[in-house]
Amino acid sequence: MANTITFIGAGNMAKAIIGGLLDSGVSPSSITATAPSDDGLAPLRERLGIHTQTDNVEAVKGADVVILAVKPQIMKSVCAPLAEAVQAYKPLIVSIAAGLEAATIDGWLGGGTALVRCMPNTPSLVGVGASGLFANPAVSDAQRALATELMEAVGIVEWVEQESLLDAVTAVSGSAPAYFFLMFEAMEEAGVAQGLSAATARRLAIQTALGAATMAGQSKHDPATLKRNVMSPGGTTERAIAHLEDAQLRDTIKGAMQACARRAAEMANELSAD
Ligand SMILES: NC(=O)C1=CN([C@@H]2O[C@H](COP(=O)(O)OP(=O)(O)OC[C@H]3O[C@@H](n4cnc5c(N)ncnc54)[C@H](OP(=O)(O)O)[C@@H]3O)[C@@H](O)[C@H]2O)C=CC1
Ligand SMILES: O=C(O)[C@@H]1CCC=N1
């Protein structure tokens, strides 16, 4: 990718995308990351070889793509000072903030911006990310292709044509690594309670999740069939799955995902009213 990319904010998610981009062969010299102080930036500059900046406005000037990667709650105060440079240089803006609507951010940047909203996830760091993208009407086909290329460098991409669907994407993939990490915690605890060492239980649980995900991604069968294939009649898995169904696991997951999407919508309302 020959484009220059500036990350405004260099926290967990920015670092995950930057790491994935570098692993995919993007040149460190084409990436700039910003943060208010050099303390967190120095290791990125020294270990990864990317450019860093504590001045957001300078970092925006001349960038082809500006990725807004700060917390939603400070986005307004970060965007306002960028408006002049954004209007002058007209980069493609990519916001990865949960909740915040495209029109709200566009307004903070002075209006008329080509803006893609992206909901990525942290496995982007290891090239196995999953991102949902939405483009506002000012985004050209070439800019759509650029956003696709950027996020496909760190995982899979799904475009949605209705902005509100990004809240569902947040529930299905943006926040979802945490659901699986919780599952790993629970499986490790349960394995230890059954006598395994924590290290052994963790290693087996993680490898099993990797295997299940890889199989589900490659198989011509749906997940329900793959599940049935593990369940020998009268066997062990049948008992375990019956317990999970009796405990209403499906409703629990549905409730968690509804809470997630509702919070994204709530954040959009709270922050647009600021
Ligand atoms: N974490 C995740 O899994 C996901 C996060 N997101 C979204 O990504 C965004 C960032 O989240 P996350 O990376 O987790 O948050 P972090 O708190 O880890 O990162 C935020 C970054 O912004 C920096 N920052 C703070 N103020 C400024 C400023 N004025 N100018 C430039 N940089 C600034 C922080 O620097 P310092 O630490 O020095 O304050 C930090 O580097 C959020 O909007 C979130 O909704 C989306 C999908 C997944
Ligand atoms: O928890 C959050 O708000 C962010 C957005 C998706 C994942 N983390």
What does this structure look like?
- Keywords: Amino-acid biosynthesis, Cytoplasm, NADP, Oxidoreductase, Proline biosynthesis.
- Belongs to the pyrroline-5-carboxylate reductase family.
- It catalyses: L-proline + NADP(+) = (S)-1-pyrroline-5-carboxylate + NADPH + 2 H(+); L-proline + NAD(+) = (S)-1-pyrroline-5-carboxylate + NADH + 2 H(+).
- This is Pyrroline-5-carboxylate reductase.
- InterPro entries: 6-PGluconate_DH-like_C_sf (IPR008927), NAD(P)-bd_dom_sf (IPR036291), P5C_Rdtase_cat_N (IPR028939), P5CR_dimer (IPR029036), Pyrroline-COOH_reductase (IPR000304).
- With 274 residues, the chain is an alpha/beta fold.
- It folds into 2 domains: 163 residues, NAD(P)-binding Rossmann-like Domain (Rossmann fold, 3-Layer(aba) Sandwich); 89 residues, Orthogonal Bundle (ProC C-terminal domain-like fold).
- Helices cover 55% and strands 13% of the residues.
- The chain has an 8-stranded mixed β-sheet with strand order 3-2-1-4-5-6-7-8, with helices on both faces.
- Helix 7 links the parallel strand 7 and strand 8.
- Helix 8 packs across helix 13 and helix 9 packs across helix 10.
- The two termini are 37 Å apart.
- The mean pLDDT is 96.
- The structure holds NADPH dihydro-nicotinamide-adenine-dinucleotide phosphate (NDP) and (2S)-3,4-dihydro-2H-pyrrole-2-carboxylic acid (A1CAB).
For the record, give the distance between the C-alpha atoms at the N and C termini, rounded to a whole number: 37 Å
Please tally the β strands and state the result.
8
> What is the element string, with H for helices and E for strands?
EHEHEHEHHEHEEHEHHHHHH
Radius of gyration: 21 Å
CATH superfamily of the largest domain: NAD(P)-binding Rossmann-like Domain
Number of helices, counting only DSSP H or I runs of 4 residues or more: 13
Helix content: 55-70%
Overall number of structural domains:
2
Domain Pyrroline-5-carboxylate reductase dimerisation: 163-267
Catalytic activity: L-proline + NADP(+) = (S)-1-pyrroline-5-carboxylate + NADPH + 2 H(+); L-proline + NAD(+) = (S)-1-pyrroline-5-carboxylate + NADH + 2 H(+)
Domain Pyrroline-5-carboxylate reductase catalytic N-terminal: 4-99
Enzyme class: oxidoreductase
